[in-house]
Amino acid sequence: MIVRTIQVKSVMTKSSLPVGGYSVNPYVGCPHACQYCYASFMKRFTGHREPWGTFLDVKYWPEIKHPEQYAGRQILIGSVTDGYHPLEEKYRRTRAVLEQLVSGRASVTICTKSDLVTRDLDLLTQMKDVTVSFSLNTTDENFRADMDKAVSVERRLSAMKQLYEAGIRTVCFLSPIFPGITDVEAVIERAKDRCDFIWLENLNLRGEFKPVIFDYIKNRYPRLLPLYEQIYIKRDKTYWKQLESRIRVYAEKNDLPYLDNYLPQGRSTPGHPAVINYLYHEEVRGSANTGIRRTDSP
After folding, report:
1. Which of 93, 69, 74 has the alpha carbon at shortest distance from 83?
2. Beta strands in the chain (DSSP E)
3. Residue 108, SS3?
């Protein structure tokens, strides 16, 4: 791993995401090295020539001295990096962000694949509005290990439970869903007693990782190659439409609220997280009247 330290003018970046607000990424690059990581596009802007997952820039910035200016604003930590990768234990830059924002009353969302986030429960429990989203797309540790270098499925689930029971709003970000591989219902069954929301997102193949995933499917799941060609070359949406219908029925049968394309801000009934359909986000992203809407309750 090639590690550098860099000075930046600010760690807060105005966000272009549907929720608006700010994005915070305490690092450039990510040691998790997910095979499907969309954030690898960042190399076009940072000048890195090393393969994604082999470098890390550690950011240092002027202290956020007036966090109250972000009161009520959306702040997403980890839009193009995981702030709780293993080197965070040493550099503590994500913790530094939280320490600087803890009194500011912003609406903070953290995206991670790591149980290291539990280290910062002392800060998270002081925040008025905080959400922690754990990415999880399988219960199969072998497939998980093929796809990323993050902690195990069991460690993610354990951390999710710990935060949930500490009163933190938690999300199981069931993403990316691999056609024919991800058992969506199995993941929901494992996570439903330890999260407020299940957020479904499909695998999108574009950029430099598309041939990587196709080679993986060809070598490890050759029976699925025609399906992937149908979806990602012919752009046939039949699989996603059938999956959506199946999960709607499953959610209704199991008394799980089913919502289209918005993430509520409240808490769900224990054991009955709301299932959020985000399978068609590429289509709604450009619409002025859609996107991820946030409300006070399901």
Report:
1. 93
2. 2-7, 12-14, 22-24, 27-28, 55-60, 74-77, 107-112, 129-135, 169-177, 197-202, 258-260, 274-277
3. strand
Q: Is 14 helix (H, G, I), strand (E, B) or coil?
A: strand
The per-residue pLDDT for 228 is 98
pLDDT given at position 54: 85
What angle, 0 to 180 degrees and rounded to 10, lies between the N-to-C axes of helices 238-253 and 184-191?
A: 30
Structure tokens given for 262? 């918005």
pTM beyond 0.70: the answer is yes
Residue tagged 């499907």 (tokens): 36
**Residue given tokens 């929901």 in the structure block:** 188
Tell me the CA end-to-end span of the chain in Å, nearest whole number. 43
Task: State the Cα–Cα distance between residues 59 and 80, nearest whole angstrom.
Answer: 14
- Give the H or E element holding residue 178: none
Residue with the two structure tokens 């009520």:
72
Q: In the CATH scheme, what is the code of domain 2-204?
A: 3.20.20.70
Residue ranges of domains in the chain: 2-204
pLDDT at residue number 295? 33
- Ranges of the chain with pLDDT below 70: 17-20, 39-45, 281-298
